[in-house]
Amino acid sequence: MGLIHAVFGDPWPRVDLPTLAATADTWLAQGLDAIASGGSPTSVDTVSALRGLLPWPEASRLDDMAPERISVPSGSSVRLTYPAPEDHEAEPAAPVLAVKLQECFGWAEGPRICDGRVPVVLHLLSPARRPLAVTQDLSNFWTNVYPQVRAENRGRYIKHPWPEDPWNAVATAKTKRASER
Question: Helix (H, G, I), strand (E, B), or coil: what is residue 72?
């Protein structure tokens, strides 16, 4: 919600910590009443309370504008990591999609959110889930950077595919052997 507010402004509400703390008696009233009555703080549904800040019809668009997960070419659904609302002060900070490089073969352009206004930063990972590259420009990565990444890693991760032509390779989350089955 913080990213959407940073991109579009009103009517999307501010959700930085100082604003939420100053208005907690309004948006979190039921939860605070439950806690004051002896209820457990962990039983308070803050996600629903925050969604209650959204005006209609914007509330129905939240998951489309800022999805929790993105589908990648391998078919996997990978969770996005959003920056804290405070990180959007100067300009909207992009969310991160950390995904294995092999799951992105054939993907010419990375995803965009907020009606296409915000490109997602891709953290392309090794099969061991270690970062190999960070990019928002997949086309440039496949053409100019991937050959070096491939040369450095195909001997280290021999069970995984490292095709010469990533543009036409089948994206996979599996090893070469598992893909052959």
Answer: coil
Backbone φ/ψ region at 123: left (φ over 0), alpha (ψ -120 to 50), beta:
beta
pLDDT above 70: residue 178: no
Residues contacting 121, CB < 8 A, separation 6+:
94, 95, 96, 97, 134, 135, 136
Backbone angles phi, psi at 118, to 5 degrees: -120, 115
Q: Which residue type sits at 100? A: K
3-state SS class at 88: helix
Sign of the Cα pseudo-torsion (75, 143, 176, 78, in order): negative
Closest CA to 51 of 4, 107, 84: 4
C-alpha to C-alpha distance for 181 and 179, rounded to whole angstroms: 6
Question: What is the value of pTM for the model shown?
Answer: 0.84
CA distance 28 to 124: 38
Query: What does the pLDDT look like over 21-55, one tens digit per residue?
Result: 898 888 888 878 777 888 788 877 878 888 888 88
Q: Which residue has the higher pLDDT, 45 or 166?
A: 166
Per-residue pLDDT, 181: 58
Query: How far is the C-alpha of 141 from the C-alpha of 133, rounded, in Å?
Result: 8
